[in-house]
């Protein structure tokens, strides 16, 4: 007696994710570490100097974390109300932060009490940053003003009141120590020069501006607001280069990687998109649990930190490459040992002992082997199989039809089972890979259960759905045939067109023109 051959399930090619160098690079992070803060995280900033600690601003506290610490190594909590936008100076020794009461604090990373307190805003200050000369601070608040401060004397240098709504973001140029930029909810981005009394450039973003970013070269400016991320050429007077609309909700934060070749944007839609700064196409995306308010990337892209609205800090560290190399070296001897002798060819005097290989049969294969057709069909009509692997269900139906027992397996079923069968057939009959088998199944179901039509409203409804699905598919096929007929007519017109070929024969200085008609 021949051994039972399992049912062959037709394998269909699946469209997989395109694996690129960016995909491999940005997937090279460990499982994220979750740190709970006291409130929504409105700002994350990495120190530019080693050991690259990062400051997290949430509620009325500023926490400083080490790169691999899950507990803050230092805390600034002397704020009467909420703190905003704690930002490092270029040397990593000072921090500047705004507050809900309108003050601007200058903090020493190694101390506790504020070094300077700048008073001048009448409403909350959400934007604070250092100019590249390290001795001046700019700030922007909800009183629509932007102020430049002198650190040594703790005095106001100049104040600008050109915005007509809240000033919520800003950045300073690393090329020019007198230039800084602010973004406002009045839909504008303004570029200020400390040597002038008014802004030198105004850019219309079109939506309330949530974040601005200046490239290290100082020539390109990125603004984020609404669902849009826009790139502007500052050297050409604020000319729009590209407008990106890859988020579904408001974009709240922007960040560049260490090389400046990738731009990151975080949004309330819980996604971080990574763009190439050459083509401005999305090369990778991260998905998070809740809406994103802040984002920062450490030097060399070793750590990515995301702050969310629920007060959770998500920290991802890059996997070390050395450990991967060592683990591969350790596996090589075991692999060679396992493969040893696989290519050995037995000699004529050798006695070969073959060990039979046992194959585990699926439930439906066991039932088919014992000729239980109805139970085998029931086994593949279970919801997990029908929903996720419908090709298995169709393969068993095809095997039953080949054996000639499909009709008997479909007959004798109750209302619930018939409803399940008709639902599956109506949903999958239009798929080309299943159509040949399911059309036969639908024909048999109609013949078997035609006498009971009208006795069950549920079964009648499923028959109507099957009729509607088949009718739509027939209409689509007719439309496709019409299109094919039109195309055939066009091709026939092209091929039957008479071509006139001109051949020039030069003999004795005389040109003869011969017209030949050719039909293809």
Summed up, what is this model?
This protein is an alpha+beta fold and 520 residues long.
Topology:
Elements lengths: L20 H6 L6 E4 L4 E6 L7 E5 L2 E5 L8 E3 L6 E6 L5 E6 L3 E6 L5 E6 L5 E6 L5 E6 L4 E5 L4 E6 L6 E6 L6 E6 L3 E6 L5 E6 L4 E6 L5 E6 L2 E6 L5 E6 L6 E6 L5 E6 L3 E6 L5 E6 L4 E6 L5 E6 L3 E6 L3 H19 L23 H7 L3 H7 L3 H6 L1 H14 L2 H5 L4 H14 L6 H15 L7 H40 L2 E9 L2 E9 L2
Antiparallel strand pairs: 1-28, 2-3, 3-4, 4-5, 6-7, 7-8, 8-9, 10-11, 11-12, 12-13, 14-15, 15-16, 16-17, 18-19, 19-20, 20-21, 22-23, 23-24, 24-25, 26-27, 27-28, 29-30
Helix pairs in contact: 3-4, 8-10
Main location: nucleus
InterPro entries: U3_snoRNA-assocProt_15_C, WD40/YVTN_repeat-like_dom_sf, WD40_repeat_CS, WD40_repeat_dom_sf, WD40_rpt
Protein name: U3 small nucleolar RNA-associated protein 15 homolog
Could you please describe the fold and organization of this structure?
With 520 residues, the protein is α+β, with helices and mostly antiparallel strands. The chain has 2 domains: 294 residues, Methylamine Dehydrogenase, Chain H; 111 residues. Helix content is 26%, strand content 34%. Strand 8 and strand 9 form a beta hairpin. It is elongated. The protein starts with 20 loop residues before the first helix and ends with a strand. InterPro entries: U3_snoRNA-assocProt_15_C (IPR018983), WD40/YVTN_repeat-like_dom_sf (IPR015943), WD40_repeat_CS (IPR019775), WD40_repeat_dom_sf (IPR036322), WD40_rpt (IPR001680). It is found in: Nucleus, Nucleolus. Keywords: Nucleus, Repeat, rRNA processing, WD repeat. Pfam families: UTP15_C (PF09384), WD40 (PF00400).
């Amino acid at each position: 007696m021949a051994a039972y051959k399992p049912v062959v399930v037709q394998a269909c090619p699946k469209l997989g994710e395109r694996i690129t160098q960016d995909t491999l690079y940005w997937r090279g992070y460990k499982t994220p570490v979750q740190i709970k803060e006291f409130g929504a995280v409105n700002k994350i900033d990495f120190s530019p100097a080693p050991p690259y600690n990062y400051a997290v601003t949430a509620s009325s506290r500023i926490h400083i974390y080490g790169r691999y610490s899950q507990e803050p190594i230092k805390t600034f909590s002397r704020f009467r109300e909420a703190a905003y936008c704690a930002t490092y100076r270029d040397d990593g020794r000072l921090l500047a932060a705004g507050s809900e009461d309108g003050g601007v604090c200058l903090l020493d990373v190694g101390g506790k009490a504020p070094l300077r307190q700048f008073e001048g805003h009448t409403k909350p200050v959400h934007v604070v940053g250092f100019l590249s000369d390290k001795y001046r601070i700019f700030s922007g608040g909800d009183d629509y003003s932007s102020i430049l401060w002198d650190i040594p004397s703790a005095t106001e240098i100049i104040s600008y009141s050109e915005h007509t709504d809240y000033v919520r973001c800003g950045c300073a140029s690393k090329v020019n120590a007198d230039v800084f930029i602010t973004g406002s909810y009045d839909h504008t981005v303004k570029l200020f020069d400390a040597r002038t009394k008014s802004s030198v450039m105004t850019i219309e973003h079109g939506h309330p501006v949530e974040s601005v970013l200046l490239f290290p070269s100082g020539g390109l400016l990125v603004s984020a607001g609404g669902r849009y991320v826009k790139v502007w050429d500052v050297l050409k007077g604020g000319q729009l280069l590209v407008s990106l609309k890859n988020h579904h909700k408001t974009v709240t934060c922007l960040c560049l990687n260490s090389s400046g070749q990738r731009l990151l944007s975080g949004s309330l839609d819980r996604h971080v998109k990574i763009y190439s700064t050459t083509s401005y196409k999305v090369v990778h995306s991260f998905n998070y649990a809740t809406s994103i308010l802040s984002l920062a990337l450490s030097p060399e892209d070793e750590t990515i930190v995301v702050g969310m609205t629920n007060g959770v800090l998500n920290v991802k560290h890059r996997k070390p490459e050395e450990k991967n190399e060592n683990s591969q070296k350790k596996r090589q001897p075991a692999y060679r040992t396992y493969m040893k002798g696989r290519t050995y060819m037995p000699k004529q005097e050798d006695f070969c002992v073959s060990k039979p290989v046992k194959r585990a049969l699926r439930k439906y294969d066991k039932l088919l082997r014992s000729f239980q057709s109805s139970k085998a069909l029931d086994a593949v009509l279970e919801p997990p199989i029908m929903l996720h692997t419908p090709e298995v269900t169709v393969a068993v139906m095809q095997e039953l039809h080949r054996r000639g027992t499909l009709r008997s397996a479909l007959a004798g079923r109750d209302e619930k089972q018939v409803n399940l069968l008709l639902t599956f057939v109506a949903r999958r009959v239009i798929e080309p890979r299943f159509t040949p088998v399911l059309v036969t199944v639908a024909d048999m179901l109609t013949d078997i259960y035609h006498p009971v039509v009208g006795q069950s409203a549920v079964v009648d409804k499923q028959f109507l759905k099957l009729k509607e699905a088949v009718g739509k598919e027939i209409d689509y096929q007719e439309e496709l045939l019409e299109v094919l007929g039109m195309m055939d007519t066009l091709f026939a017109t092209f091929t039957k067109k008479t071509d006139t070929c001109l051949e020039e024969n030069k003999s004795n200085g005389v040109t003869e023109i011969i017209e030949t008609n050719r039909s293809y």
